[in-house]
Amino acid sequence: MKRIIPAVFLLFALFTNSFGQSETLLNGDIDHGGYGGLISNFSEINNSFGVTIGGYGAWLIDHTVAIGGGGLGLTNDIKFDETPEGDRYISFGYGGLYFGYLHNSQDMLHLTVETFIGSGEVNLRYNSDNEDLFDDDRVFVIDPTINVELNLTNFMRVTIGVGYRFVNGVNLEILDDKDLSSPTFRSTIRFGSF
Questions:
Q1: What are phi and psi of 65, to 5 degrees?
Q2: Which of 25, 147, 185, 191 has its CB surrounded by the most CB atoms within 10 Å?
Q3: pLDDT over threshold 60, residue 5
Q4: Percent of the chain whose predicted confidence (pLDDT) is above 70
Q5: Residues 134 and 90 sit within 8 Å (Cβ to Cβ)
Q6: What is the pLDDT of residue 181?
């Protein structure tokens, strides 16, 4: 028994010392930065061409991983039918958490992968202004994209990419999930410390 206790302490010391040399998130030479940007998404909404525009901001860890938030909203009128009371239009917007991965971000041209995960709202209304609302619904949205990013300057970058917007939970009069889910084409401009 007297020999087992020192042997256990020796193994414990060797075990903890070997893990003490590992890299960690909060210690070591990790660079931190951040950026904000403007997004333009082009996609199909209820069989019509839709433009969603928005913005976002993110904390950038070691030039590679980004965590933040943002949102987008539909900017053009999408008419879905005509009634004796008047034409009816769709409004759509969403926002939430933003996650990004930048591969070899210090190279002038490189790949990025990003996604928005959050909630949104779909409104049906009787005119092209945000008035005369007659139905609305909350939805869940995941909007991943893969991009090519170009470093224009040390503080400004532009991207173009493709993705797919998944929308779930649409329970309206004539719309369902597939009417808002669609492939997307995205362009962004980012400003910050990369």
A1: -110, 130
A2: 147
A3: no
A4: 82
A5: no
A6: 97
Q: State the residue for tokens 């901001």.
A: 57
Cβ proximity of 157 and 149 under 8 Å: yes
Q: What digits encode the pLDDT tens for the residues 137-154? A: 999 999 999 999 999 999
Torsion sign (Cα): 61, 67, 71, 72: positive
CA distances 81 to 53, 78, 160, Å, are: 24, 9, 33
Q: Which CATH architecture has domain 27-193?
A: Beta Barrel (2.40)
Tell me the domain boundaries of the chain: 27-193
CA distance 189 to 36: 8
Q: Phi then psi for 105, rounded to 5 degrees?
A: -65, -15
**With the CA atoms of 106, 108, 113 and 119 taken in that order, what torsion angle do they form, in degrees rounded to the nearest 10?**
90
Token pair recorded at residue 176 = 């369902």
Report how far residue 22's alpha carbon sits from residue 25's, in angstroms, rounded to the nearest whole number: 10
Is 88 in contact with 77 (CB distance < 8 Å)?
A: no
H helices of the chain, in order, are 4-19, 177-180
Output DSSP code: residue 175. Answer: -
Residue scoring higher pLDDT (176 or 7): 176
